[in-house]
Design goal:
Mean pLDDT: 93
Number of strands: 12
Structural class: alpha/beta
Radius of gyration: 20 Å
Number of helices: 8
Order of helices and strands: HHEEHEHHEEHEEEEEEEHH
Largest sheet: 8 strands, mixed
Low-confidence stretches: 237-242
Length: 242
């Protein structure tokens, strides 16, 4: 697939919410018509958990290529990397980018580490980043709100101390989701999900099909008058009397 077609697929995925994308990626692997079954839905870490919060639900969905990095406490024996290396990775990646930050920091410090603020966000956005996911807090939420840049965090706080970059573009786990560089991330106020970039055609096609199926199903439910009718529409769940 050429880049323009790939970009159009990325854009098309914004029509669907993140739960719909999880459904077609792996939620119901027994459904071979509408679910790719890419992962075991419980034993594989392919979407985020309830720790992650969407900072700007009003901005809507974001879809992009994952660039990853690890932030940690300063280590005098390793001072090779910095935020400039994160920026270079964003620049080198296909666009748009979702930056995934693993905060490998002791929990009592991590909770008060407002890592990314207005300056870092401005730099990231300038190079084609449209959103950031992190398993810790950040800050400057009021300043960033006007930047049309999505953040998904565990919370916010006002300050931070010294930290350093420990790795760039390595596999990370952030709030229950394992992410490798170059995977596609879809995120909205429900959370985030990832899938391999080479599956984008199938994910987009199945998301469109699922949307039509669910639109018809909900219309049929609204037309029902009794529980038994709804049960039949929803797939034949047995009533307690049968």
């Amino acid at each position: 697939m050429n880049q323009s077609n790939f970009d159009s697929r990325l854009e098309a995925l914004k029509q669907y919410d993140t739960p719909s994308i999880t459904n077609v990626v792996a939620t119901y692997p027994e459904d071979r018509e509408l679910c790719l079954g890419l992962y075991n839905p419980w034993s594989t870490n392919w979407y985020t958990d309830s720790e992650l919060k969407c900072m700007y639900p009003e901005l809507g969905r974001r879809v992009g290529y994952a660039v990853t990095c690890v932030y940690e406490m300063p280590d005098p024996s390793f001072q090779r990397l910095g935020f400039g290396d994160v920026l270079k990775a964003i620049e080198a990646s296909p666009k748009p980018v979702i930056l995934v930050i693993k905060q490998n920091i002791p929990e009592e410090i991590k909770k008060k580490n407002g890592l990314s603020g207005g300056n870092m966000t401005t730099a990231m956005k300038t190079l084609g980043c449209v959103g950031c996911i992190s398993d810790g807090p950040s800050r400057d939420i009021d300043e960033i709100r006007e930047m049309d840049f999505q953040y998904m965090l565990t919370g916010v706080c006002a300050g931070h101390g010294n930290f350093s970059v420990g790795a760039v573009n390595v596999p990370v786990n952030v709030c229950g989701m394992d992410v490798a560089p170059g995977e596609i991330i879809h995120m909205d106020e429900n959370g985030a999900v990832k899938f391999p970039a080479d599956k984008i055609d199938q994910v987009a096609d199945l998301a469109a099909r699922l949307a039509e199926v669910e639109k018809k199903r909900m219309a049929d439910i609204r037309a029902c008058k009794m529980a038994e009718e709804i049960i039949r529409v929803m797939g034949g769940f047995e009533s307690s009397e049968e």
